[in-house]
Design brief:
By secondary structure, the chain is α/β, with parallel strands linked by helices. The chain is built from 6 helices and 8 strands. The chain is about 30% helix and about 15% strand. The strands form 2 sheets. Strands 2-1-5-6-7-8 form a 6-stranded parallel β-sheet, sandwiched between helices. The relative contact order is 0.16.
């Protein structure tokens, strides 16, 4: 067997990745939902998950009850609710959420990358824009966005004015009915040379062999 040449060793660094959950979730529920993903990635990356600061009001009678549902911003400021597909002039809560993420970077970091799911992925795109604009609070090398979308709030338009150069991987499902794939594709188009990972399913993070291999390839480029 030939000896391994100098500089050809496989990367051994385990990356630290900050995780942002979706709307109606919290840090604990997202940790439970990503158990399989975290297990598959454990030799490549450690996922540190935090909760959004905004508490979602109790749902109407007859709606699904969830334990401690959280969100990153509200598109309806009066009802304190959120709809990714509705255009709005204003929204509420994003600055508080950005402060929460900044606190995580300060107290739990450093982080090599950041991963977001659904509304959390939308926030990740904003963090990438802020990093590119020189915001010192957010220092990371890459972003992973699952079922992400571009915010429909006009006051968030400034996040998408310039092409985002942060290395990014975008994951979306062909049959996602919560965030249709064209919304995720629209967000990915704001990034320079985005890596696209598709799957035939819906609104979840896929961990089948095909997607797992692509995750590994993307992550390993930052483990040198």
């Amino acid at each position: 067997m030939a000896a391994r040449t100098a500089g050809s060793e496989a990367p051994t660094k385990v990356l630290r990745v900050l995780g942002l959950h979706g709307y109606w979730q919290n840090g604990l529920s997202f940790r439970e939902r990503t158990g399989n993903l975290r297990q598959k990635l454990k030799k490549h990356a450690e996922l540190v998950i935090i909760s959004a600061p905004l508490t979602i009001p109790e749902p109407e009678e007859g709606d699904v009850q969830r334990e401690d549902p959280r969100g990153w911003w509200f598109s309806d400021t009066e009802k304190k609710s959120f709809n990714a597909t509705v255009e709005t002039e204003s929204c509420a809560g994003l600055e508080e959420s950005l402060d929460t993420v900044a606190k995580a970077f300060s107290e739990l970091g450093p982080f090599d990358g950041i991963l977001g799911f659904s509304q959390g992925a939308a926030v990740v795109a904003m963090l990438c824009a802020l990093k590119q604009q020189g915001d010192p609070r957010f220092q990371f090398d890459f972003a992973m966005l699952v079922a992400g979308f571009k915010s429909c709030a006009s006051e968030h338009a400034h996040f998408y004015k310039e092409p985002i150069t942060v290395p990014s991987l975008h994951v979306f499902g062909d049959t996602d009915r919560v965030i249709p794939k064209d919304m995720s594709q629209e967000l990915a188009a704001h990034f320079v040379n985005p890596v696209l990972v598709t799957h035939p399913g819906g609104h979840y993070i896929p961990v089948c062999a095909e997607q797992k291999k692509l995750y590994f390839t993307f992550l390993d480029s930052f483990r040198k």
